[in-house]
Design brief:
Elements: E1 3-8, H1 12-22, E2 28-34, H2 39-44, E3 47-50, H3 56-65, E4 70-73, H4 76-81, H5 83-89, E5 93-95, H6 99-106, H7 108-117, E6 126-129, H8 135-141, E7 146-150, E8 159-161, H9 169-181, E9 186-190, E10 194-203, E11 208-210, E12 215-216, E13 219-221, E14 225-228, E15 233-236, H10 247-268, E16 274-283, E17 286-293, H11 300-307, H12 312-320, E18 335-343, E19 367-369, E20 372-375, E21 378-381, E22 387-393, H13 396-408, E23 414-415, H14 423-436
Parallel strand pairs: 1-2, 1-4, 2-3, 4-5
Antiparallel strand pairs: 6-9, 7-8, 7-9, 10-11, 10-16, 12-15, 13-14, 15-18, 16-17, 18-22, 18-23, 19-22, 20-21
Helix pairs in contact: 1-11, 3-5, 8-9
This protein binds adenosine monophosphate and glycine.
Adenosine monophosphate binds at residues 124, 147, 156, 159, 161, 189, 191-192, 196, 218, 279, 290-291.
């Protein structure tokens, strides 16, 4: 039997997904619906077709033409558009939740309301606003520590934090007004102080299998400064924890992910089948939820899928067939560091269309293509995060050396964060956590 599997999306995360599918012992043909002609993906697929990945009927049509049995949806936008619902309706199994349940990512108020209703630990004091009524009062109630979140998908740019993006209440009110003027709504919630970490879990709607804990670096520049990005780099440790966390923190996060899946099953009488990505903050008062994503993180997928020992196709069918509890999901006991090379000027004013050269890369197996195209045989960066590399070793510090060497060997008008995974940055996180506990 040859499995015909469709991957929706064409960034580095989807390249990592496709590499893992390709490593499976099963006979398979991999297809990709893409927004750009990713050369790394192209090499591994039967077919890669550029289409609107958010258009349900064109994704379904393509899947039917190719006799696809299972689809894996990489990014959030197709989930928000209901691509998973449309595929299931045509008897195609999907790793990626249906639209209702993807609200865990697409609506900040949905998630906070779910936590409140089901009394899931780790929630925040919050309020949803559809107008400016009561905004000043609620800001005052939270003192100087609040976060304003546009209530919808904003590519990581809808969240503004007091003391960072918002200098005072006037700034906050201006931002709220901007959202109302554009016809949107927003959530104001308490600000947590601590260290962020991510726990991604494979879910079949009932059973969860957790992946190693990852830390992302959202800020564009060294020392966690500059504008927010999709993520400049990530690391994991060989014990699958992080140096500033203890097992209690991680167990709390696992329990919160599990409680969330149970709440969704109860609310919709249906199963969340896909990846649940919890973004958490370890604080003085325990683990708090910052946000959920309904998919693999990018670059987090590159770290964890590089470590995955279990056959990925078995895991995917475990998810779609509700048999995840029967699968032993295992990861290598090694550390990883992933670094992204991004265009100069990214994220606000990126260069676009410039040639890049990867001839000096020594380990192409751990190279992931993102926003790149090919023109007349020449690799071109196309304006967003360009390429990611993963270093793997027994310690974070050794993995960082590999990742740094590889990422700096890519030639072109690009930059990356040298500090990700370096000892001094990790020590800063440990010291911060120690000062809070
Ligand atoms: P999100 O898009 O919800 O992941 O938010 C982007 C970033 O804003 C997070 O990675 C955090 O650094 C920060 N953030 C969001 N919510 C909070 C919160 N309640 N307290 C502190 N920081 C937050
Ligand atoms: N790296 C964070 C995300 O994928 O949303």
């Amino acid at each position: 039997m040859i499995y015909k599997i469709l991957v929706v999306g064409s960034g580095a995360r989807e390249h990592a997904i496709i590499k893992s599918l390709n490593n499976s012992r099963h006979q398979k043909e991999i297809y990709c619906i893409a927004s750009n002609m990713n050369p790394g993906i192209n090499e591994l697929c039967e077919d890669i077709t550029i289409k609107d990945i958010n258009n349900c009927s064109s994704v379904v049509r393509y899947a039917q033409e190719k006799n696809i049995q299972m689809a894996i949806i990489g990014p959030e936008n197709p989930l928000a558009a209901g691509v998973s619902d449309a595929l299931w309706n045509c008897n195609i199994k999907v790793v990626g939740p249906k639209k209702d349940m993807a609200q865990i990512e697409t609506s900040k108020s949905f998630t906070r309301d779910l936590f409140k209703k089901y009394q899931i630990p780790g929630g925040a004091q919050y309020k949803t606003f559809y107008s400016m009524d009561g905004v000043s009062e609620f800001l005052q109630k939270l003192g100087n520590d609040y976060v304003v979140k546009f209530d919808g998908l904003a590519g990581g740019k809808g969240v503004k934090v007091s003391g960072e993006h918002l200098a005072n209440n006037n700034d906050a009110i201006d931002y709220c007004q901007e959202i109302i003027d554009s016809g949107g709504k927003f959530v104001i919630e308490e600000k947590f102080v601590g260290e962020e970490f991510s726990l991604m879990s494979f879910c079949d709607g009932k059973s969860l299998k957790h992946m190693p804990i990852v830390q992302d670096h959202k800020r564009a520049y060294e020392g966690d400064s500059g504008p927010n990005t999709g993520g400049m780099g990530t690391y994991t440790d060989s014990d699958h924890l992080l140096p500033f966390l203890n097992t209690d923190d991680v167990n709390e996060a696992k329990m919160i992910n599990k409680a969330t899946i149970n709440a969704l099953r109860d609310k919709y009488n249906d199963r969340y089948k896909g990846i649940l990505y919890g973004g958490f903050m370890a604080t003085r008062d325990g683990v708090k939820l910052i946000e959920y994503n309904a998919r693999f993180g990018d670059p987090e997928a590159m770290n964890v899928l590089s470590l995955l020992e279990t056959d990925f196709i078995d895991i995917c069918f475990g998810i779609t067939n509700c048999e995840l509890d029967e699968i032993q999901v295992q990861f290598k006991k090694r550390a990883t560091v992933c670094k992204y090379a991004v265009p100069e000027g990214y994220p606000d004013n990126p260069t676009k269309g410039q040639p890049i050269n990867i001839n000096n890369i020594t380990n192409p197996d751990q190279l992931y293509y993102a926003s790149v195209d090919i023109e007349n045989g020449q690799l071109i960066e196309s304006g967003s995060r360009t390429m990611a590399v993963v270093g793997m070793a027994d310690t974070i510090s050794e993995a960082e050396v590999f990742a740094e060497r590889e990422v700096s060997s890519i030639i072109g008008p690009l930059f990356h964060r040298e500090d990700i995974g370096k000892d001094f940055l990790i020590k800063k996180r440990i010291d911060n956590m120690n000062s809070l506990r």
